[in-house]
Amino acid sequence: MKLFVSTVIALTALFSVNAMASNNTYVYSNLEYCQLQTQGVATTQLDAYARKLGFVPNQQECRTLLQPSDNINDRQTASNELRIIQSGSAIVTNNAKLIHFNN
Predict the structure, then answer these.
(1) Which pTM does this prediction carry?
(2) Taking residues 73-101, what's their average pLDDT?
(3) C-alpha span between 6 and 55 (Å, rounded)
(4) Cβ contact 53:29 at 8 Å
């Protein structure tokens, strides 16, 4: 009987810890905060998001994060990095994938 009770208690504790851990898997980012801000969501929602994030991104950070980047330069940089990584590897990627990975 003691074994049964201790097993039930152990399983209950295991499942409750697992349930609590699954509630904290969302990742908050300053990019998403800035996107919400530009979409014009309610101030209370922004305040709650900032509390979860831990800080409020300033306007300069938001401008930098929301600027469109130079995709051609990013592609070339990624292709060069992949070539460097690939140089000592037995795995070879297709060149078409290196050029058109962002499409």
Answers:
(1) 0.47
(2) 67
(3) 44
(4) yes
